[in-house]
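Entry 14: structure prediction run for Protein CutA, chloroplastic-like. Input pasted below.
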Amino acid sequence: MALKLSSLVSPSVVRRRLPLVGAFCVLSFGLSNLCPSFNPSSKTGCAQSLHFLPILGSKVDSSVHSTNRIRMEASSKTVPSIVVYVTVPNKEAGKKLAESIVKEKLAACVNRVPGIESVYEWKGEVQTDPEELLIIKTRESLLDALTQHVKANHEYELPEVIALPITGGNLQYLEWIKNSTRD
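Run finished. Output C-alpha cells:
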C-alpha cells in the first residue's frame, strides 16, 4: 500500500515549516559556514540573497567576528598548523615511528589508528594490505623536516605523507601544538 507524500504532508504545512528549517540551518551552521563569501557590510556574493539580514542587525556582525576568533590566523599565540596522514604496515612500525616523531618534537601528537585496509595500485597491480594510520598534528613549517624523518625511518619504498591544513579549532589545543613542537 503506497501512500502519496501529499496525503502525509499538506502544502500549507510545508510552507509553514520551511522558514523554520532555514533558520535552524543559519543558527546551527552560521552564516559564514553556509555562505563562505558572506560579509555583512558587503553588497556582493550571497549576502544579496539574505533578505532577512536587516532583521538580524548587530547579531550577524558579532557571530561573524566570533567565528573569526577560532581561525588560525586570528591568534598570535598559535602558528599555522597541519594534520599529516602517514600509513605504516603494522602496530610495531606505527609505535616506533610515532614515538620518534614526538621525541624529535616534529609533532605535538600522533594518533595511531589500527585496523585500516588500504587498496592501491603498485607496480601495475592492485594491492590490498592491512595497515595502521598515523594522524600527526604539527606546525606547517615542520612539514619538510617531518617528511624527511618519515622517509628516513619508514620501511616503505614510497611512504605516504599527506598534509591537510588546520583552519581553526580549540585555541588552547592549537597553542599546545605550537608549544609542543620545535621552532
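Notes: Strands lie at 81-88, 109-122, 125-139, 162-166. Will compare against the previous run tomorrow.
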